[in-house]
Design brief:
homodimer; about 210 residues; mainly alpha; Tetracycline Repressor, domain 2; elongated; DNA-binding
DNA sequence: GGCTCCTAACTGAACGTTCGTTTGGGTAAC
DNA sequence: GTTACCCAAACGAACGTTCAGTTAGGAGCC
């Protein structure tokens, strides 16, 4: 439950189908609450068959994590590739980031579970494969948009805001009484963009009337 | 102050000591990963002894949740009681909220786990006992500070931001290379306050100079 | 074609361990 | 004697894992 191999092992089709089911189950219930028999039942096979492809349960979980986390930064390239103004790019980036988490509950939940588990090696995997690219990109944009502010802190805030909001959704449904819709997600992204742009770009100008 | 609490079951000292240990273990490892034997060992007793005080494992977990979640809104009263200007109160509230999560890892982790578990009844408990009071208070403040903006969305954003940041801490340590300190937490609270105050209070005024 | 050989993929059954829970009895206090 | 509390021991079920044996399919040779 600790060391993580950094090399990609070229997975067979069968292995991928196992991991596909594993990611769903582990995301939904957590590592300890998913048994090998549960996983085997899900893909209509036997526990022993799984041990033909993976040495133990831990290896399945780690491989499933890798499978979900890998290549997560690819789509980011198309988002920031254009030579739009930084604030436009930032807006696209915030929307993309929000969708990344809300359209992909398996990813979102595995990320949350890993943050809770706190395993050092897997935290590094999470950081490098999932978090680093958006963070660096937002950091870069914020550095251009608001050089006076702490770009790292701003980037952290944006990611934290998006993550926290997606997580809070069920609570907010209870608090505000309305179900989460595509529209409220759009609203949130726009809200966040305005919050960041106005909050961080505004020169710290006192309220004294000129 | 003569209200009678209808829900509190009047826990004995022994029960409280059991729940105290249970909260720590469940927060750290999650429900499925903590066995009755683990819990019994932690408080130097036997599994059977626990069944004298609680009917089953689930009841222990639920009671532990209640024990941590209960009276969470009490301290909030002193925060918002003063008749300071709304923006000053908001700043105190943000700092308080940040400390609430970061100084209390057991609470923070149980909240995160409950958000992941998604059980309807326990989500309602979480919402009412932990989330509602700060949410309503921030909502009220924001309504006074920025009547034009969606106060619920703003309140949700603030709570999401604080929650997300606390969660992200281990990842940020990897990304920025520096360990989390009391100071960086203060910085975050101040940063958030400015973000919210400037970002939401600034009238949507185009950049054209008057 | 048929035949052998090999290997990957899988199965059914079982291993020992740990799980949540129960039982029956014991001890101290009222 | 009743009650509250606790223990040692055990219950059946489920756990991760192993193992001997079966199947399917291709390669190599005739």
């Amino acid at each position: 439950m600790s060391s993580v191999d950094l090399t990609a092992p070229a997975l067979s089709d069968r292995k991928i189908s196992i991991l596909e089911a594993a990611t769903v189950l582990f995301a939904k219930h957590g590592y300890a609450a998913v048994s090998i028999r549960d996983l085997a039942r899900e893909i209509h096979t036997t526990p022993a068959a799984l041990y033909h492809h993976f040495p133990d349960k831990d290896a399945i979980y780690t491989a499933a994590l890798r499978h979900v986390f890998s290549d997560r930064a690819k789509a980011l390239g198309t988002i920031v590739k254009g030579d739009d103004a930084p604030d436009v790019t930032l807006e696209r980036l915030i929307i993309w980031l929000t969708q990344q988490f809300s359209d992909n509950p398996v990813l979102a939940r595995l990320v949350q579970r890993e943050l809770l588990a706190g395993d050092r090696d897997r935290l590094r995997l999470l950081t490098e494969d999932v978090m680093a690219a958006p963070f660096r990109e937002i950091e870069r944009l914020m550095h251009r948009l608001a050089p006076a502010k702490d770009a790292s802190l701003s980037a952290a805030s944006i990611i934290a805001l998006v993550m926290g909001y997606v997580q809070l959704t069920p609570v907010l449904e209870v608090l505000t009484g309305q179900r989460n819709t595509k529209q409220s997600l759009k609203d949130f992204a726009a809200h966040t963009k305005n919050l960041v742009l106005h909050g961080l770009l505004a020169q710290p100008q006192p309220k004294a009337p000129s």
